[in-house]
Specification:
The structure holds 3 protein chains of 3 kinds.
Chain A lengths: L5 E2 L5 E2 L41 H10 L1 H17 L15 H18 L9 H30 L7 H5 L3 E6 L3 H14 L3 E5 L2 E6 L6 H18 L6 E9 L3 E3 L7 E12 L8 H7 L5 E13 L11 E10 L4 E3 L2 E22 L4 E9 L6 E3 L5 E8 L2 E3 L5 E3 L8 E7 L7 E6 L2 E3 L7 E21 L2 H19 L4 E8 L2 E8 L3 H15 L5 E2 L5
Antiparallel strand pairs in A: 1-2, 3-23, 3-24, 4-5, 5-22, 6-21, 7-8, 8-9, 9-10, 11-12, 12-13, 12-21, 14-15, 15-18, 16-17, 18-19, 19-20, 22-23
Helix pairs in contact in A: 1-4, 2-4, 4-7, 6-10, 7-9
Chain B lengths: L1 H27 L8 H34 L7 H23 L2 H18 L16 H31 L7 H28 L4 E6 L5 E6 L5 E2 L4 E5 L6 E2 L9 H26 L3 H5 L8 H34 L8 H19 L8 H18 L1 H4 L9
Parallel strand pairs in B: 3-5
Antiparallel strand pairs in B: 1-2, 1-4
Helix pairs in contact in B: 1-2, 1-4, 2-3, 3-4, 3-5, 4-5, 4-6, 5-9, 5-11, 6-7, 9-10, 10-11
Chain C lengths: L1 H29 L16 E4 L4 E3 L7 E7 L4 H17 L4 E8 L3 H11 L5 E4 L3 H5 L7 E5 L5 E5 L5 H11 L2
Classes of the chains: A alpha+beta, B mainly alpha, C alpha/beta.
Main location (chain A): membrane
Subcellular location (chain A): Membrane
Membrane topology (chain A): Multi-pass membrane protein
């Protein structure tokens, strides 16, 4: 062992950096005659970071072991987090808006600066994540460095402490005795009644309670570390699924992210609003200026599971698992997945119904309903009338070349080129039919298509989630709470009673809540006739 | 039932007011005391505590009756939350009083609670229906626990304030006296803002302006305080024909920026006027005026109360504002954490008090420095309540 | 001895933390999305119907190079490359290269009239429910996979292709 170790006058060899002898409690640092109160942090034991400073590993270790560094990391995280709320993060700006111009447009020069500095995606930035990683490392290193020596120090506590240890406690008092024996046994009894764990040695007493509260900080740090590990696990493949699923009423879709195993069918989307004349809420709804306030978003869903293997593109064989109305706050849960109600679109076009009319008589000769997602090629009407669909554009527009085309596959603006075949025109007459539009591109026709009505369906916006990290986050959170409560709601109190000739010396210490300890002491001294120790910090 | 409920709140409010005065007498009223100092302060302190308890019971009745009237826990909008937060503060004070029997904490905590509740009255108080995301038992569990945590943490602010008023040297102006006055001024300007808002509301003041926002949308904005700053190129539509005196600067482009600026200016100006008036009457700093009454206060005890309040409040806050919040967010918004501004500010509050607890371990961070930290902590809590809901838009801005 | 052990413990703990954080950073900032078909993967088999109603299975094309294209009529860049694809199809058809053009869940009629208008001769397959498209992890179209005679994807591209490039690609998968 190196000569840096400190040998106390009691003969015990303490590690370098020890402030208070591990055995007898004699203060080792500074002037032994000093009357200054002792710093009882970590029992005056040597934190390991103070010992070795040679290799680069030790240097990194010692850096992260410092509470000061830890506090700086917390403060930097705090400031960075706050900065991230000045303007909305990229994920909260309206979808489809371009962040390169959005911030400037909405928030002016400051917005531009915010974007240029990368603050629009602050919480996902490398430096923010690095700060969190540094916090995690600090938690591990600082806790280990303190827990081990503290544990040792508290475990091998002696009953008898050095005189100057006693004198330099915050509360210290001397009582002169007439008849010592009886009094000490009452002291012991009284302390035991206050649920102290009392040890006796040669007529000296050492009473202690709630030592476990000293472990609180380390327990809560373990919780936090677990929580951070949970956060990290998310990035491992297969731990986390987050998909959007748009589901039209009546349709069955494969549930993305479930490795093809599950299918979901919508039996209908329901949007309910509050009654605007409801006596209870009338005033608030009026004051809000909204037409209606939503009460319920719900998708009546049926969950299926695929049976057996399947080649992509072929129809699956499905087995019904369960029916479940998916509402906000009430996701559908299965096999580690959860499906949430998050969005909707009302009244999406589904099919359109037309009649074919004779222009002269203005009478219909037949009716047809066209499924906008999969129109037929031909619709047979009666008596030799027929409609051929020559072309179909679900989301019609003219492109820059002037050709008719479709913007998307969603029938937002369906348009048809139809050939109307009648006994008079066996080759047909061509008509272009769109919403509120009827063109006859190849000349005047004798027949026309008249729009009758549409059939619409609602679409549910659902989110599919799997988060295999939740259990570890939950455990981490629970351990953290246990740790803080253990550390904050109890306090470690110790009372040393030293018999010295015909005097009784009384000193005590607590890690927090001195007021509580003082009241306890008052009660002890009242019952035993000892003098109430003085608060030495008050007699400067 | 709703009417009964709001009457109960009024009663509670006035009882709190009375309790504050009684606590003040327990400290100031030495001139007319017949008994000795200790008995005097004990007697009046007891009455202060009893009144606070009675007030609390009235507010609790408000809470219960409003719950019955609404059919859901009344913690779902800014009015309800802010009043509940005030109630949580009172509750936290009662607990701390039972432990420490400190009248001076009452003198500071009760008025702060009163200001919080008064501030709540500025928001619309109609009973609102719950949107689907709020229809969950976690609403009451999360919000009440978070508010209780914040209430307990606020007691540490009250204790910190006592410490500062007690110890800051008022003989000459310094940074400490300046910032202490800033704290006083901020509390006063909140009062001024409440008075102005309620005053103009009672007078039925309202004027509407129309302007084109940055998305080329026609927007109308209603002012309930006279318009000092109007939207850029805004036109007057209806209501009281006053102002705007100037247009808000062009770089303030956020939603309703001009309107928010107007409210801010009124609060600052109103606060200055009220603060000026008080200074004129006192002829010294507010801190200096209160200091003599606190000369018998045990500063070390106050410091400990401040630390203890954080020690008790921190776990409650973490449980309510982070853990319960995450559990609910996982159900309602599909993820337990989404960097929504309110979530982030709960995290900021958590980090701040975590830093505070670690600093308390270090030498030299007890006493005055710690008291200033307690003040900053309260500022963060209030920022989360006021600025995050009203200025930054996010998922939590229900009001 | 004690000192040495301590150094080892410290080194191990720091190493674990650095590796874990490094891996997290790697997957977050650099790694490709998992679960989608990439160059080097075996092309997943599928069965789709063409415009005539015949079933087409990818595995039947073993021994041939397959130019697997995902397209739709609303996608202008897709349309732009169609004539060149058709031209090269005719050239390479007898050299053992096949084009399979998967239409991304449009109505049959829309796809059919488009094929008629552009007079395309290669098989067009209908992916009614986006099944194959999702299976291949196709996002924005056009996307083309070059599959060699052994069924392995040798390239994935997301651009609209010119005649020269198509020619070059077809050479690459020519058996």
């Amino acid at each position: 062992m190196s000569d840096k170790n400190i040998t106390c006058e009691c003969g015990h060899i303490n590690p370098y950096g020890t402030e208070i002898c591990e055995v007898c409690g004699k203060p080792l640092q500074g002037d032994s005659e000093s009357n200054k109160l002792l710093n009882m942090r970590y029992e005056g034991s040597a934190r390991r970071s103070q010992t070795y400073k040679t290799t680069i590993i030790d240097k990194i270790w010692n850096f992260f072991s410092s509470v000061k560094v830890g506090i700086w990391i917390i403060v930097l995280l705090l400031v960075a987090s706050a900065v991230g709320t000045i303007f909305p993060q990229e994920m909260y700006i309206p979808p489809l808006s371009d962040p390169t111009v959005y911030y400037e447009e909405q928030y002016g020069i400051l917005g531009q600066l915010y974007f240029d500095l990368g603050f629009h995606n602050l919480y996902g930035s490398w430096w923010y994540m690095l700060l969190i990683a540094a916090l995690g490392l600090s938690l591990i290193v600082a806790s280990l460095d303190r827990f081990v020596p503290l544990y040792r120090a508290l475990k091998k506590q002696r009953v008898v402490r050095h005189e100057s240890f006693m004198k330099r406690q915050k509360y210290f008092g001397i009582t002169e005795l007439v008849n010592n024996k009886a009094e000490l046994s009452t002291v012991k009894e009284v302390l035991q009644k206050k649920r102290y764990n009392v040890k006796e040695e040669d007529g000296h007493l050492f009473a202690e309670k709630n030592r476990f509260s000293r472990w609180g900080p380390y327990v809560n740090h373990i919780g936090l570390i677990l929580f951070l590990i949970g956060g990290m696990l998310r990035f491992f493949p297969g731990m986390y699924v987050d998909e959007v699923l748009w589901l039209r009423e009546g349709e069955t879709e494969k549930i993305k992210g479930t490795e093809e195993a599950y299918y979901l069918q919508s039996d209908g989307f329901i949007l309910e609003t509050y009654d605007n004349n409801d006596a209870k809420f009338k005033d608030a709804i009026e004051a809000s200026g909204q037409e209606a306030v939503a009460k319920n978003y719900q998708t009546d869903a049926v969950l299926y599971k695929q049976v057996g293997e399947r080649i992509a593109g072929t129809d699956p064989e499905l087995e019904k698992i369960k029916e479940h109305p998916i509402q906000v706050n009430k996701p559908l849960k299965f096999d580690g997945y959860a499906i949430y109600q998050v969005d909707y679109k009302l009244n999406e076009l589904q099919s359109m119904t037309f009649t074919m009319d004779n222009k002269e008589t203005d009478k219909p000769v037949g009716e047809l309903t066209v499924n906008l997602y999969n129109p037929e090629k031909e619709y047979e009407l009666n008596d030799g009338y027929r409609v051929e669909v020559m072309d179909y554009f679900p989301d019609f527009e003219f492109n820059d070349k002037g050709e008719p085309t479709t913007k998307s596959k969603v029938p937002n603006n369906p348009a048809f080129i139809l050939n109307m075949i009648s006994p008079e025109h066996p080759d047909g007459e061509v008509a272009f039919v769109a919403i509120k539009q009827n063109l006859e591109p190849l000349g005047e026709n004798d027949y026309k298509m008249s729009f009758q009505n549409v059939d619409t369906k609602n679409v549910s916006g659902l989110v599919v989630r799997k988060d295999n990290t939740l259990w570890i986050l939950a455990i981490g959170g629970a351990i953290f709470m246990i740790g803080v409560i253990q550390g904050m709601y109890w306090n470690h109190r110790r009372i040393w009673v030293l018999r010295k000739d015909n005097e009784i010396w009384l000193a005590c210490h607590t890690n927090k809540n001195w007021y509580g300890l003082k009241r306890e002491l008052e009660s002890v001294t009242d019952q035993t006739g000892l003098h109430m120790p003085l608060d030495q910090s008050e007699q400067k | 039932m709703a009417q009964l409920s709001s009457n109960l709140l009024y009663i509670a409010f006035f009882i709190y007011f009375a309790a504050s005065i009684v606590f003040a007498i327990s400290l100031f009223g030495k001139k007319w005391r017949k008994s000795d100092e200790a008995t005097h302060s004990k007697k009046w302190g007891m009455w202060g505590f009893i009144l606070s308890t009675v007030g609390f019971l009235f507010q609790l009745s408000y809470f219960i009756t409003r719950w019955i009237a609404a059919g859901h826990a009344p913690v779902s909008n800014l009015f309800e939350f802010t009043t509940f937060f005030g109630m949580a503060m009172v509750f936290a004070f009662l607990i701390i009083y039972l432990i420490y029997k400190s009248n001076v904490i009452g003198l500071f905590a009760m008025p702060v609670a009163i200001i919080v509740i008064a501030y709540a009255s500025v928001f619309p108080s109609e009973i609102q229906p719950l949107i689907p995301a709020l229809q969950s038992n976690w609403l009451k569990i999360h919000v009440t626990t978070a508010a209780l945590g914040e209430g307990i943490l606020s007691i540490s602010f009250a204790a910190g304030l006592v410490y500062l008023v007690r110890t800051v040297n008022q003989e000459k102006a310094s940074k400490s006296t300046f910032w202490l006055e800033v704290v006083m001024y901020t509390l006063i300007s909140t009062v001024a803002f409440v008075i102005l808002s309620l005053g103009f509301e009672a007078a039925g003041y309202s004027s509407t302006y129309q302007f084109v926002d940055q998305n080329e949308q026609q927007v109308t904005v209603e002012y309930t305080l006279p318009a000092l700053t109007g939207p850029t190129d805004g036109t007057y539509v209806s209501g009281n024909e006053f102002g705007p005196l100037v247009e808000a600067p062009a770089w303030m482009k956020g939603e309703k920026a001009a309107h928010k600026l107007n409210t801010l200016i009124w609060s600052i100006v109103g606060g200055l006027a009220l603060y000026g008036l008080i200074r004129l009457i006192l002829r010294k700093r507010i801190g200096a005026a209160i200091q003599p009454a606190l000369k018998n206060v045990n500063e070390e005890l106050v410091d400990e109360i401040q630390y203890r309040a954080v020690a008790i409040g921190f776990p409650v806050f973490t449980l309510g504002a982070l853990i319960f919040a995450m559990i609910w967010a996982q159900a309602a918004w599909t993820r337990f954490w989404g960097w929504d501004p309110k979530e982030v500010w709960a995290l900021v509050t958590f980090l701040f008090y975590a830093a505070y607890l670690h600093l308390r371990l270090s030498r030299g961070w007890q006493g005055e420095k710690s008291a200033w930290l307690a003040v900053v902590g309260f500022v963060i809590i209030m920022l989360n309540l006021v600025v995050v809901n009203l200025v930054i838009s996010g998922l939590h801005s229900y009001a | 001895m004690k000192k040495k052990n301590r150094l080892i413990v410290r080194t191990v703990i720091l190493a674990i933390v650095f590796i874990a954080v490094g891996y997290t950073f790697y997957t977050n900032f650099f790694a490709n999305e998992s679960g989608i078909v990439q160059a080097g993967d075996q092309a997943p088999n599928f069965i789709l119907t063409d415009l005539e109603g015949n079933e087409v299975e990818l595995e039947d094309y073993r021994g041939k190079g397959v130019f697997l294209n995902f397209w739709a009529t609303y996608c202008e860049p897709c349309k732009d490359e169609m004539p060149a694809m058709d031209k090269k199809y005719k050239e390479y058809k007898d050299k053992g290269v096949e084009i399979l053009a998967v239409n991304v869940s449009e109505p049959k009629l829309t796809a059919e009239s488009f094929v008629d208008r552009y007079k395309l001769s290669f098989p067009v397959l209908l992916d009614k429910s986006n099944d194959v498209t999702n299976h291949y992890g196709v996002g924005p179209i056009p996307v083309t996979f070059l599959i060699d005679k052994d069924g392995q994807v040798i390239r994935k591209t997301q651009a609209s292709l010119s005649e020269e490039v198509i020619d070059d690609y077809m050479k690459q998968i020519q058996p």
